[in-house]
Amino acid sequence: MLAWCARPAASALAVIGVAAIPELVAALESPRQWVRVHAGHALGRIRQEQAAPALFRALNSPDYLVRTYAGNGLDAMGLLDEILLF
User: Fold this and answer.
1) At 20, phi and psi to the nearest 5?
2) What does DSSP assign to residue 62?
3) SS (H, E, C) 18-44
4) Domain ranges in the chain?
């Protein structure tokens, strides 16, 4: 995925929803920063627990925006509280 099309592509995948989760999870491993950022944002917008394992892993990303979107997505699902309570 080219960096300039990462945002519209990730937004379209977020609209598709659950069926797009495997592609977005794979995009979180992209060598391109903006692909990872927009994939994390889209996964958070989908708000399905199927995406939670990938979002938890993304909390360890060296990229601040990936971590932020992963945390926002987990928080929207009510799953971030679980990790913060320990």
Assistant:
1) -90, -10
2) S
3) HHHHHHHHHHCCCCCHHHHHHHHHHHH
4) 20-84
Tell me if 68 sits within 8 A of 36, measured CB to CB: no
What count of residues does the chain have?
86
Chain position carrying tokens 């929207």? 76
- Residue 84's pLDDT band (cuts 50, 70, 90): low
Q: Look at the pTM and tell me if it is higher than 0.90.
A: no
Burial code (b: 16+ CB inside 10 Å, e: under 16) for 3-38 equals eeebeebbeebbeeeeebbeebbebbebeeebbbbb
Q: CATH fold of 20-84, please? A: Leucine-rich Repeat Variant (1.25.10)
